[in-house]
Design a protein that fits this description.
Arc Repressor Mutant, subunit A, 195 residues, single chain, mainly alpha, Rna Polymerase Sigma Factor, Chain: A
């Protein structure tokens, strides 16, 4: 059977079995619809490209963690992820506060949610303190990309220009930073979920 005519379900199964080319086929099959959707909401090419990349990083991480339910359809699932990231972008834009360069970055300032109870806010603050400590344990290249992306709100294109590496290298460093953060959290028995 030709790989290009395999169903999304079969391609996912092959990808999870170690065939990376199957994911490339999935990406090529759906990228134009996902990107067009993001662009229609964001109307900014650089930000849309970043959200598009973030969508597929999240898809890869979710697939590897077994969080994709095969009963559902793959494209609607990706669209839901991209839709949530678009919403997150607008939320972040409306809530972001200016951070002076010499201040210790506090992620809690950006995602503070006044609808949370005092207990929930304290739990979330504790998680973010733990997260900042874990970030300091990352390899320097990964830490820098993560801080530029999430704390300075730089696009991958800007990160690439600032660090002198390709966009793909910056994306790879971000992906490994997230993988390492999860691993560090497990090693140190730190629960980063806020549920």
């Amino acid at each position: 059977m030709l790989v290009s005519v395999l169903s999304d379900k079969d391609l996912i199964k092959n990808y999870l079995a170690g065939d990376n080319s199957s994911f490339e086929i999935l990406l090529n099959r759906h990228k134009s619809r996902v990107y067009a959707f993001i662009m229609s909401k964001i109307k900014n090419r650089d930000i849309s490209e970043d959200i598009f990349q973030d969508t597929f990083i999240k898809v890869i991480n979710s697939l590897k963690k077994g969080k994709y339910n095969e009963e559902g359809k793959f494209l609607p699932w990706i669209m839901r992820i991209s839709h949530n990231l678009v919403i997150d972008h607008f939320r972040k834009e409306s809530k972001i506060k200016s951070v002076r360069p010499n201040d210790q970055f506090n992620i809690f300032d950006i995602i503070k949610d006044d609808s949370l109870s005092q207990d929930e806010q304290m739990i979330r603050k504790r998680i973010h303190l733990d997260l900042n400590l874990l970030i300091d344990d990352l390899p320097i290249e990964q830490m820098n990309v993560l801080r530029m992306r999430y704390f300075e709100d730089m696009s991958f294109k800007e990160i690439s220009a600032k660090t002198g590496v390709s966009i793909n290298t910056a994306l790879g460093r971000m992906r490994y930073a997230l993988i390492n953060l999860r691993s560090l959290a497990e090693d140190k028995n730190i629960d980063l979920s806020h549920k």
